[in-house]
Amino acid sequence: MSFSALGLSDQIVRAVTARGYTQPTPIQSQAIPVVLSGRDLLAGAQTGTGKTAGFTLPILHLLSNKVVKRSPTGKIPIRALILTPTRELAAQVEESVRMYGRHLPLTSMVIYGGVNINPQINRLRGGVEILVATPGRLLDHVQQGRLDLSKVEVLVLDEADRMLDMGFIRDIKRILALLPKQRQNLLFSATFSNEIKAFASTLLNQPVMVEVASQNATADLVTQRVFPVDRDRKRELLTHLIKTNSWYQVLVFTRTKHGADRLVKQLHQDDIVAMAIHGNKSQAARTRALGKFKDGSLQVLVATDIAARGLDISELPHVVNYELPNVPEDYVHRIGRTGRAGSSGEAISLVCVDERKFLSDIEKLIKRSLPQEIIEGFDPDPHAKPEPIQVGRQSKHQPRRGGHSDRNAVSKPSSVAAPSKSPSKPQKKQSDRSITLR
Ligand code: AMP
Predict the structure, then answer these.
(1) Domain count of the chain?
(2) Cα 94 off chain centre by
(3) pLDDT-derived band of residue 216, with 50, 70 and 90 as boundaries?
(4) How many A from CA of 57 to the centre of ligand 1?
């Protein structure tokens, strides 16, 4: 199967070929014909599958083959609206739109919060056909009367599960109310909770469902291991792993922003170059850290879950869960950063006694138990008692407004830290999160 056999125009095929893609990924071969046919789409695909091109390429094709109806003032209307949960993802998606659309006369731009709004306002004045945005900042523009979404032909909700998780549902509903009834809707999600299914059923009109890999299954190319360790020796173990294995590019996850900052400081004390990205950092600081990490000058990037959403770092070899996420789906998203687009990767979780319940929830979700290995010299105390963990958020949490893409610790001592009797035993009972599309 080739890109041209999928029905994409020569200009688009030329752009993807220049990018080095020889054939479509499974999500692309399934999704592209559906989008080209004009149908609504419900797609199960996580980052790393090539999903961005899965919706970007056919949208570019559709828009470039239709005559634009300009407003009486001659302005080009917004014809495609792509909503993403985070600024980083929005920026990456728009970069893809530009790259794949480089031989087409279509215009695009990205808008997100955390940066000066004025350049965005100026740019919007000129007219933009493809708009990639985070919901909060988009509504800021709408409220100031600067955006007309009434001519949108295609709507994409990228990483819809994460948008609902982040409490964007109300913002999204407000945005939907501004769109014309007649339009094409594409919804991409890595996981399918009952909430997302209910939302999809209100948004989509007789959608075609496509799915790559079973839902909530972790990528086969990723080697996953758990290193049990005492809670106060995690940092020492992390340094040990980085130094003895000479890891040069490691993405490390913490549960909270504060935890990320603290770990960066500690790694510096161990002479390891590290930077953090999370919602309290300015967009410029986040972009700088990401740029250094991508070009190889930064050895360790410490991130909170939401800040890391959708990061596209090719062939990232190591992902470390310094702290396990309390929301099991986040584990799937985290390790989706490695083993991407055909390359293999390694995901390591440093797990202390407090996190056993998190681990068993993750194993239940991915329907497999993770191999555990004790690193010599780091044997955990067998008599250690679990302590409650302050969790950042639960699966269902309060709606929160704005493009601020991080969740903060709410200092809620929780029963989630209750010890599990058998952390590594595969669970028989299926949670509703693991129900697949078909
Ligand atoms: P995504 O899931 O959209 O974040 O894409 C993950 C990575 O796969 C990105 O680095 C893309 O550039 C890359 N990619 C997308 N489509 C293809 C393809 N057909 N062949 C090879 N790599 C691809």
Answers:
(1) 2
(2) 15
(3) very low
(4) 12
